[in-house]
Amino acid sequence: xxxxxxxxxxxxxxxxxxxxxxxxxxxxxxxxxxxxxxxxxxxxxxxxxxxxxxxxxxxxxxxxxxxxxxxxxxxxxxxxxxxxxxxxxxxxxxxxxxxxxxxxxxxxxxxxxxxxxxxxxxxxxxxxxxxxxxxxxxxxxxxxxxxxxxxxxxxxxxxxxxxxxxxxxxxxxxxxxxxxxxxxxxxxxxxxxxxxxxxxxxxxxxxxxxxxxxxxxxxxxxxxxxxxxxxxxxxxxxxxxxxxxxxxxxxxxxxxxxxxxxxxxxxxxxxxxxxxxxxxxxxxxxxxxxxxxxxxxxxxxxxxxxxxxxxxxxxxxxxxxxxxxxxxxxxxxxxxxxxxx
Length: 341
Ligand code: COI
Description:
Elements (H helix, E strand, L loop, with lengths): L1 H12 L25 E8 L4 E2 L3 E4 L10 H5 L2 E3 L2 E5 L5 E4 L1 H14 L7 H14 L11 E10 L11 E11 L11 E6 L4 H9 L4 E5 L7 E4 L3 E6 L2 E4 L10 H12 L3 E4 L4 H5 L3 E6 L3 E10 L2 E4 L8 H14 L10 E3 L1
Parallel strand pairs: 9-10, 9-16, 13-14
Antiparallel strand pairs: 1-2, 1-3, 1-8, 4-7, 5-6, 5-7, 6-18, 7-8, 10-11, 12-13, 12-15, 15-16, 16-17
The chain binds 2-OXO-4-methylpentanoic acid (COI).
């Protein structure tokens, strides 16, 4: 009997493979580097050879790089973001990873970079998830945020594209992006000038984030620093069009499709700041942000509040439930967006 007790104790003390690690406080996850996971996937591309390496998983850590690396001199770098979650079916799933692969390819073409083919991108993301499976939070407590990076890592002195590229996927356990938690409405400051300086200043004043207006007219909504934006007018929803100046969000596209399936008319059309201030509701979407109701917009010193203080707007809540229902496999996935790892 004592041997049986010892064995039973050993089994309960050993975490099941891939079960959430006990080294993280899952109830107090924010969105930050403190949740960074121990492994990353790395593959390289050499322009002379014209092909990508097989790639593999290695410990998360510094990247060896010469000061002459293209990225450090001329800034060839792009990134993606997607999440792995434990679903209600008790498995780990990704959401539309091939959309991120496609967007990385589009971004790479715009930046004259070699891009990982879709199969390498998805394999890299899956490897980063599998090797960090114990960093995928318990169901409903957050996600493993995957950050695929593509950088011009090879050396160059004169201006030009890098002779070689590095594709990296690192990961971090994350909870809600904004401090108040997922369902708490956010307060946005409307700004005309994008930049990390204005964002930091707005955050220091207590705003959740900054909503930027277009550079040409200082009048039409573009996007928030971390997410896309939508305005609601009854059964019509409007979001700024993709004209090359804002992020073609995977969550943006998904929410447009989900809203249409629920009978809303969704227009991808310019929204002036006056129209946004007059909306029934405003909400934002993004991988990190998921879907957040906007509690207030502050423009030229005046604060416009929406709905009931502290409560998400009803359309935002309906679409949040629809989106996360799919992502966490609480509902059927007629779109084929959920990708089992
Ligand atoms: C994402 O939503 O994945 C992003 O990259 C946004 C960033 C502000 C974390």
